[in-house]
Amino acid sequence: MKKGFEQFGKPQSDTGGGAEHVKKDNGITRREFLKNAGLVMGGIFGAHAAEKLVKTGSSYVDDLIEWLETGVSTENSEEVLDIEPEAIRTILNYDARRIELNPERMKQLKEYWRLRYTNPNDHGRLQEGLQKGVERMSEWDPYIHQAFQKHAIPERLRYLALAESDFNPNAKSRKGAGGPFQIMPETARGYGLFMKPLVIDERRDPVKSADAAARILKDFYARTGDWRLAVSGYNGSFVSHYADKAKAKKETITYEGFLSFLSGEITSLRDAIQQNQFRHRVRRYESKESIAKRYGVHTRQIIQEDGSKAALRVGKRVRIDIQGEDEKRNIFYRVMRGFAENVGFYPRFDAIADIVEGSDAFAKQGKTLQFRHVKTKSLDTLHTISRRHRMDAASAEELNPAILRSRATLPRGYEIRVGG
After folding, report:
1. What are the residues whose beta carbons fall under 8 Å from the beta carbon of 303, sequence distance 6 or more?
2. CA-CA distance, 238 to 109, in Å (whole number)?
3. What is the per-residue pLDDT across 350-367, written as a single tens digit (0 to 9) for each?
């Protein structure tokens, strides 16, 4: 096991106010908790969110659905947690009067993730991915830490890169987010990251993308006044929707208010499905076939509101003609998948941050990358620069992950890192 991870498999204290370990007759076992938490995350959230500002490249939502379908195996532990499972069970109840989210349930989700990330036998191998992420990040962390300090961002928020991608500069989501902080192309350009197809993508640069991520978080905090909302807003669009509505109603923006807002949205969505009034807004490149596949229905069940038989138009709404109770439930849980990633993101991030800080992992890692900057000359490539400065190709690429091809001609005057 690498240095700094001796404690990763041991229970960490919950500095965010989560569960404490108690005697078995006062709580539930880890196995019972994980089964209930798996149900929560498999179906908490739903509907038609707008395009996310920043999107994650991890596959953990699909992993959650697998947990929902297959259950949880925790044969090697019977830890006892002071967490009550009954409230969790009600969240996924399609027949519940209202689906309720609150800070206490977010703490329960945080504990769910803490248990998974500290379990070496977890089927998703999350602990292994986090360990490798910390190893990669440790080499860059002093520079990332400095970038967050410069913008007055709480230092633990830099661990967003671990939650987003296990600090993988090469990570790219199906939606197009890229780099360790998983920034969307349009957002990257808006925050000054340079991108040139097949040549440079500064979202992959750990320091430059960290600076952009810090400024994104700073902007969300300025808008909401809550770092939990800033983190949630970084990962998806629901915070923006909530903040706009709260501002219009002249209400105070709070994390609790955000959860209440989502509870209402999800309940309204569930009600619309139950009453066969569910609507889908047509997006770019969508067809009846793709929409039908998304919801698991036949194309004849996709009906334009105006009754038109013409081709679908972007921005218009179509009604899903839901047939039968089983189909309603199926659509409800399909739609829930779309919300799970964003709303469950803060508890997952918070658990990761506690684990890393509790294990003192960065302090126990090895080297920090040392380098200096040089500017390119006319017709320079990373290959020619590495030869000029007597660097091997692997070292040059490690220091400059934003360069997509080592023999691509770089812009004149572009800064490149070389060995210090």
Report:
1. 318, 319, 320, 321
2. 18
3. 999 999 998 876 666 668
Q: Helices 325-343 and 30-43 meet at what angle, rounded to 10?
A: 100
Q: In which residue are the tokens 């919300």 written?
A: 339
Please check whether residue 325 is in contact with residue 319, taking contact to mean a CB–CB distance below 8 angstroms.
no
Residues 6+ apart with CB under 8 A from 254: 226
Could you tell me where the beta strands, DSSP code E, fall in 283-362?
302-304, 317-320
pLDDT confidence bin for 224, thresholds 50/70/90: very high
299 pLDDT tier (thresholds 50, 70, 90): very high
CB 163 within 8 Å of CB 129: no
Q: What are phi and psi of 372, to 5 degrees?
A: -135, 165
Q: How far apart are the first and last CA of the chain?
A: 30
Give, in words, the CATH class of 371-419.
Answer: alpha beta
Cβ pair 117, 352 in contact under 8 A: yes
The CA distance from 25 to 329, in Å, is: 36
Count of C-beta atoms within a 10 Å radius of residue 189: 14
